[in-house]
Amino acid sequence: MRAIMTVTSLDHVGIFAAVTTKLAELGVNILDVSQTLMDEYFTAIFLVDLGGSERSIQEVREAVREVEQRERLSIQLQSEEIFKAMHTI
Amino acid sequence: MDRTDSILETLRMIEEEKLDIRTVTMGISLLDCADQDGERARRKIYDKIVRHAARLVEVADGIQAELGIPIVNKRLSVTPIALVAGASGDADHVAFARTLDAAAAAVGVNFIGGFSALVSKGATPGERTLIDSIPEALATTETVCASVDVGSTRAGINMDAVARMGEVVRETADLTADRHGFGCAKLVVFANAVSDNPFMAGAFHGVEEPDVEVHVGISGPGVVKRALEGVRSAPLDVVAETVKKAAFKITRAGQLVGRLAAQRLGVPFGIVDLSLAPTAEVGDSVARILEEMGVERIGGHGTTAALAVLNDAVKKGGLMACSHVGGLSGSFIPVSEDIGMIEAVQLGAISLDKLEAMTAICSVGLDMVAVPGDTPAPILAAMIADEAAIGVMNSKTTAVRVIPAVGLGVGETLEFGGLLGRAPVLPVNRFGGTAFVSRGGRVPAPVHSFKN
C-alpha cells in the first residue's frame, strides 16, 4: 500500500535523519519527498510504499510514534487513496 | 511532488475544519424474521443483526486509521419494525425495541433506527400497535430510534396519524420527564420518508432495499465555511461555485469510505447522503455558513434564500463525486446540534415560523427543537401537519423532531450533552388550530402528484 506521511514541527537539526532512519528500520520504502518551510514550521511530505514492510499502516503509525515524541514532531500517516479521491476526478 | 498543496489542504480540512464522516450505517432487512411467535421473531432479529453487523465497528475503525479521517458514528438501520412485528399479533411491540437495543449493544453501535411505521395512507393493526408502543419503547431503551411516515406526495396526508403522533410525542416526553422529555430526541415524524437514510433518528431500511448494505453520511460544514472565507464580497454565483467544489471533495471522501466499507464487509454499497451535518462544536456549524454568506444571523431575513443557494450547490458538487446519492441529502438545521442555531435562538433571531420556512429548502424541518414542556398534543400535531404539508405539496422529505421540554419554559435551556448538544426552549404559537387537526381523515394528494 502507498501512503502519505506528513511530518510537521518547529525546524531543528536532525528531523529528516530521524524519520528516514526509522522508516528504513521498518522496511518502508520512500518513493518521493517534498519539504517546505512555512513560517518557522518545517513540513515534509513523504510518499512511501508499505509493500516491503511486514507491518500494517496502523503498526507503522505506532512504530513511528517514538520518533515523533523524541523529536517533538507531528506525524500523520494516511493511505494515498484519501488524497487521490478528494483531489482528482 | 506537485500534490503538496492538495495534501496539506486535506490535512487542514480534517484537523482544523473538522471534516469527518458523520456515519457509516449498515441497513439490514428483517423481513425474513417475521414470525407468528413474537419470541421466535425477536430471536431471529437478534441473530440476523449480530451476524451481519458483528464486524461493522471494527471495519469502520480500521478505515478511519488507514485514511486518517474520523468516522464519528457506526449505526444500524432495519426494516420498519411494524412490518416484521405485525405478523406476531403481539399486543405491544416494546419487546421488539428491547431486542433491537440488545443487538445494537452487542455489536457496539450507538444508534439503531427502524422502530418505524409507514402510514401515509392508512395503518394496519400492526402499525397501530407499533405507534402505540413508541413512548414506552423510547423510554426503556437507549439506542433505539423511532420514526413514523404520516404523508407522501402520492398518498396525501394521513391526518388520523398526524393527530395520533401529536399524542405520541406528548406521551414520550411525559414518560421521559426525568430527562426533560429526552425520548423525543429519538422520534421523527416524516412526510415523504426515504428508505436509505443513514442519519438518525430517522433511519430505517426500506422494503425495496437489498438484504444488507452500507450507506455513508458525510459532514463538513467547517470546510464549506472556510472555502467561503476566501470569496468574501464575491457575487452569489461565485459563492455557489465555491460551495460546489468544497462539497465535491467532502463527498469524495464519503464515497471512498463507503466503497472500502462495503468491500470489507462483503455487502453492496448503498448511497452517500450529501447532507451537511453540524455538531454543537465550534467550527462545525451550518448556521455559520449562512452567516459567512452575509446573513447577519441565521433566522434573519435572507436566511431562506441563502439556504437555497447552499443546499443546491452542495447537491450539485456532491452528485458528481459519488456513484449513488440518496438519503435526505440536504442541509441539516438541528437547533440543539449547531452552535450558530443555539446562539440565534438565544438572541431571538430565529423562531419556529422561520424554521418552518427553511423546511421548504432543506430536508429536515423542525429538528431538535425544544418547546415548552406543557405544550399540548393538539398543538404538536398541528406543527407536524404544517411540516407534512410543505413536504407533500413540494415533493420533498420533511420531518419533525420536537421535544416538549418537560419542566422547562421559554428562556430555559434543555441540555442533552454530547452530539445532541443543547436547545434553548422556543415559544410556540398558542393559537394551535386544534379543531383543524382533530377532524382527522386524509388530506388528498396534490394534483401534481398524478404523473402516470
Compile the SSE list and pairings.
The complex is a heterodimer of chains A (89) and B (452).
Chain A: E1 2-10, H1 15-25, E2 29-38, E3 41-49, H2 57-63, H3 65-70, E4 74-79, H4 80-87
Antiparallel strand pairs in A: 1-3, 1-4, 2-3
Chain B: H1 4-15, E1 21-28, H2 38-53, H3 56-67, E2 71-78, H4 81-85, H5 94-107, E3 111-118, H6 125-140, E4 144-149, E5 151-152, E6 156-158, H7 159-175, E7 187-191, E8 212-218, H8 221-229, H9 236-265, E9 269-273, H10 286-293, H11 303-319, E10 325-326, H12 339-347, H13 352-359, E11 366-372, H14 377-393, E12 398-405, E13 413-415, E14 422-424, H15 434-438, E15 442-443
Parallel strand pairs in B: 1-2, 2-3, 3-4, 4-7, 8-9, 9-10, 11-12
Antiparallel strand pairs in B: 1-8, 5-6, 6-15, 7-12, 13-14
In helices, the fraction of residues of chain B equals 40-55%
What are the low-pLDDT stretches of chain A, counting only 5+ consecutive residues below 50?
none
Main sheet of chain A, how many strands, which sense, barrel? Answer: 4 strands, antiparallel
Number of strands of chain A: 4
Work out the helix count of chain B. 15
Q: Give the oligomer, counting copies of the same chain as homo and different chains as hetero.
A: heterodimer
Structural class designation of chain B = alpha/beta
Average pLDDT taken over every residue of chain A: 92
Structural class of chain A: alpha+beta
Q: State the shape of chain B.
A: globular
From the 3D structure, determine the CATH topology of chain B: Anaerobic Ribonucleotide-triphosphate Reductase Large Chain
CATH architecture of chain B: Alpha-Beta Barrel
Question: Structurally, how many domains make up the residues of chain B?
Answer: 1
User: Biggest interface in this structure?
Assistant: A-B, 23 and 22 residues
Organism (chain B): Kocuria dechangensis
InterPro entries (chain B): UPF0210
Protein name (chain B): UPF0210 protein GCM10011374_31540
Pfam family, one (chain B): DUF711
